[in-house]
Amino acid sequence: MSDAAPYTSSSTEAPDPKRWIALAIIAVAQLMIVLDASIVNIALPSAQRALHISDADRQWVVTAYTLAFGGLLLLGGRIADYTGRKRTFIIGLFGFAAASALGGIASSAGLLYAARGLQGGFAALMAPAALSLISVTFTLPKERATAFAVFGGISGGGAAIGLLLGGTLTEYASWRWCLGVNVPIALLTALAASRFVKESRAHGNTKYDVPGAILVTLGLVSLVYGFTQAAKQKNPGKSTEVLGWTDPSTVRFLILGVVLLIAFIVWERRTKTPLLPLWVALDRNRGGSYLIFLFIGAGLFAMFLFMTFYFQITLGYSPLKSGFAFMPFSLGIIGAATVVSQLLPKVGPKPLMVPGLISAVTGMLLLTQITPDTSYVGLVLPAQLLMSIGMAFVFIPTSSTALVGIGTHDAGVASALLNTSQQVGGSLGTALLNTLYASAVTGYVAGHLGDPADTAAVTRLALVHGYHIAFFWGAVLLSGALLTAVLLINAKKDDVPIEPGAEVPA
């Protein structure tokens, strides 16, 4: 995932006889990374109750993982290239197991957040190493295409598995097992990798842009913390008044975040070994692709969070039933992806992206019509299908336009930037929309609760009002992706590289 020269095998070198076993091992690790972003969504209501996490702070269970993953992904790719992809892969697996164990026994919210951050950091080591290992293990074009298809299928379907597994574990065991289940899987995968996966590394400049990684990660964390501060109550238990956007602590963290991110850009322009080669992102098609994924991540990650609470808290679904309630979304993406893959070489990216994003925005706006008694089949299901099919029409073309004008030498960093954009967008969007949600709920209760006897009824309506606000702004974020596609994407069908590894991003 770096701009270093990739490892290449000699054309006369015989294929690794253990390559298909290696693919199975890598696939298990990728599945674990993907499902861990969704498995906690179903468990979150139970974890929030058990650890007494406030509505304003609960998003940290999601964003701690995505911030660390997105902020460190590019650095992880460089470490894997230069230190050794197999070695980095195994270290990532052992670290992921330890972080998962820590989260599974967490006795406080802070410890859970820290464990999720560690999971994201070690996932940032595993993910680029896994993709690189497939590239160097499969040297025959036909076999490499098959291997990437397996990898892409897991990336696209892993979220669905995570939702069902999270629901099953939460309902029949404990929310803690949604984290603990990773421990034996990661350890066994690491042991298998040590035996069946071949080592490879890139050659060249082995300097790491650690200052860049620190600046961008701290900047993003500061922004998210500023968003969270705005939704916190001034006097918990005594008043429903929140700190708001103009509170000095909120403003201080938001300004610090912006300053750190500006410093990151300045540093990247001056350093000889940048974490983010700016020239990659400044092309209109590539830059537009990254912006689209940023907006999509911001809208969709938050949608999963709020729909989880709507299913379990408002509609009274069990965790397992909630997992099944999300299945049409995952199946819609997987089903439509086949059609999109066939259409892309014929019509090009933009004719697919624009209607896809219009469909996704429409689906998100439909969710602003939910009530405490809404029919799942009558409204929620159509909304999910509109969004999921629309997303399939966006994910695959955008994954290709992100590589326009990029040679094989730099394809790794261009692809990593796409994943980074989605994770960063998910972090910022989840924090921002959770803040808007919490403020809307607090304001609704303050404005409508006259008789204490009506507390339960008013609270139920307040939660739905909060969901409406969150889904409306989620639609605004997806509209940002639509506007970006209309204004920036101009690649034609002949410009788009059709890679065998094009996938539905996690």
Question: What does this entry look like structurally?
Answer:
By secondary structure, this protein is mainly alpha-helical. It has three domains: 9-204, Up-down Bundle (Growth Hormone, Chain: A), CATH 1.20.1250.20; 209-272; 277-506, MFS general substrate transporter like domains (Growth Hormone, Chain: A), CATH 1.20.1250. Helix content is 75%, strand content 0%. The protein has 17 helices and no strands. It has helices at 19-51, 60-83, 85-104, 109-137, 141-172, 177-180, 182-196, 210-231, 248-270, 278-282, 284-314, 319-325, 327-347, 350-366, 376-401, 411-448, 455-488. Helix 2 (60-83) packs antiparallel against helix 16. The protein is globular. It starts with 18 loop residues before the first helix and ends in an 18-residue tail after the last helix. Mean pLDDT is 85; it is low at 1-12 and 499-506.
Distance between the termini: 16 Å
Strand content: under 5%
Helix content: over 70%
Uncertain spans: 1-12, 499-506
Key traits:
506 residues, disordered N terminus, 75% helix, single chain, Growth Hormone, Chain: A, globular, mainly alpha, disordered C terminus, 3 domains
SSE layout and pairing:
Elements: H1 19-51, H2 60-83, H3 85-104, H4 109-137, H5 141-172, H6 177-180, H7 182-196, H8 210-231, H9 248-270, H10 278-282, H11 284-314, H12 319-325, H13 327-347, H14 350-366, H15 376-401, H16 411-448, H17 455-488
